[in-house]
Design goal:
Layout lengths: L1 E6 L4 E8 L3 E9 L1 H5 L6 H22 L9 E7 L3 H18 L3 E5 H12 L7 E6 L4 E8 L2 E7 L5 H11 L6 H8 L24 H17 L5 H26 L4 E5 L6 H13 L3 E4 L10 H12 L23
Length: 338
């Protein structure tokens, strides 16, 4: 079964064709990240306009690369939430029109469920149940994956997501955008213990907070400026990256153990961070747990993961009609209305 996936939740316009939820036949992405970098972050209006300009060509390219016509796919899957609402609506409305014109089932997909499904693209033998950390620019969820369409969220960020915190600290250090890769590059070879940073506490045992950590890093910069002192930028970048990785890694394994899961996964844009991957791999090996990492090319926002999850949503009967709406937020655990 082949699924055409469409993803427009943020600043990537993406389309892909995936077979049986595991085999990627094509994966096309048009990003406005270079334009967004001029403003130090994603400008929703710009993102929406670029989606409108790109989506038709991106979908056509994905079908062409898969050597298929739209009549050949079995269903059209699209990100329906969460995301920048203007951006989400571009994809939803395009998918609705395409599915209607081609007389194909329309499958709404939750963006975070898609990130979980990115694990299947790199680990064909992986099947639920397992425990997964989804960490990205706008989200941080610790999720028990009970089935292909069954999820329980054990914890999440109570304020900033990890990727958002990376962006804001990188901006303060004049390292550029996106912040995660910029901080990782600046931190290479630097001392991660040079600047002791706090571990924010939360009421939820498996919730995390990055707002206070971000503020602590910014205070280092501001205090140095007031005293006329220089900041060791590589060392502060390394210290911040180390603390974020420690918090995510520790919370993932505590939650997985509490859930009784011995198989863990790491997905989302922040999952591309080399230090985090190293820490999670070392912890899994030390505790005798099985680890699955999302392939780097499917860690950031992409449509292959949406098509992959769309396959399982379709099998579960989770389709929608022309009344499908897009949503800025939606609980990961809940299915979309039909």
């Amino acid at each position: 079964m082949t699924i055409l996936g469409i993803e427009t939740s943020c600043d990537e316009t993406a389309a892909a064709v995936v077979q049986d939820g595991r085999v990627v036949l094509s994966n096309t992405v048009a990003s406005s990240v270079e334009e967004q970098a001029l403003y130090g972050g994603v400008v929703p209006e710009i993102a929406s306009r670029r989606h409108i300009e790109s989506i038709s060509g991106v979908v056509a390219t994905a079908l062409k690369d898969a050597h298929l016509a739209v009549q050949d796919v079995d269903a059209v899957a699209v990100t329906a939430a969460p995301g920048l609402i203007g951006a989400v609506l571009v994809g939803v409305n395009f998918a609705k029109g395409l599915a209607f014109a081609a007389q194909k089932p329309l499958v709404p997909v939750h963006h975070l469920r898609g990130h979980v499904a990115s694990l299947y693209l790199g680990s064909p033998a992986l099947a639920p149940p397992f425990f997964c950390l989804v960490a990205s620019g706008g989200h941080c969820h610790f999720v028990q994956v009970q089935g292909y369409t069954g999820f329980t969220v054990w914890g999440r960020t109570v304020d900033d997501a990890a990727g958002e915190a990376f962006d804001k600290v990188a901006r303060a250090l004049h390292l550029g955008y996106p912040g995660g890769p910029a901080i990782a590059k600046a931190a290479e070879g630097a001392n991660p213990a040079a600047y002791p940073l706090p571990t924010p506490k939360t009421e939820g045992a498996y919730d995390v907070s990055f707002s206070g950590l971000k503020t602590a890093a910014l205070n280092v910069v501001n205090t140095a400026a007031m005293k006329g002192e220089a900041v060791d930028i590589p060392a502060l970048a390394a210290s911040f990256q180390q603390k974020v990785a420690d918090i995510l890694c520790d919370t993932l394994f505590r939650a997985a153990q509490a859930a009784g899961q011995r198989v863990v996964g790491l997905a989302g844009g922040v999952a591309a961070n080399a230090l985090l991957r190293e820490k999670v791999a070392a912890r899994a090996a030390a505790e005798g747990m099985v680890l699955h990492l999302a392939p780097l090319q499917y860690s950031g926002d992409n449509a292959a993961m949406i098509a992959a999850q769309g396959y399982y949503e379709y099998l579960a009967g989770h389709t929608a009609g022309p009344g499908l709406n897009g949503y800025a937020s939606w609980p990961m655990e809940e299915d979309f209305p039909g």
